[in-house]
Amino acid sequence: xxxxxxxPHCSGEITYPDGDNLVCAECGHEWPAAxxxxxxxxxxxxxxxxxxxxxxGDNVVVIKDLxxxxxxxxxxxxxxxxxxxxxxxxxxxxxxxxxxIKGLVLKTCFLRKA
Length: 114
Ligand SMILES: [Zn+2]
Fold this sequence. Notes:
Bound molecules: zinc ion
């Protein structure tokens, strides 16, 4: 939550992304995220395979079967990863857990926002 900007309308701290916009949960104000998405973070925003910005807590879906280092279980296409964590200074990877495998580090080019 700390990385989300506050609402420009009511200064509410509970905001969330909706498509290309940010939405304030407190007053319902909606404003474009462009320009603010990477605020406070150096470098490129983390994006999924479709170019949608990803933030901490997003759910993503694996778009192809992936081998997992140190695990005999492959990560199947269509697997839902809930509540991802962005990797600081590394826009190409996120961290997350599938139901079967914990502590995954995944390339964002194999993911899409759920
Ligand atoms: Zn607001």
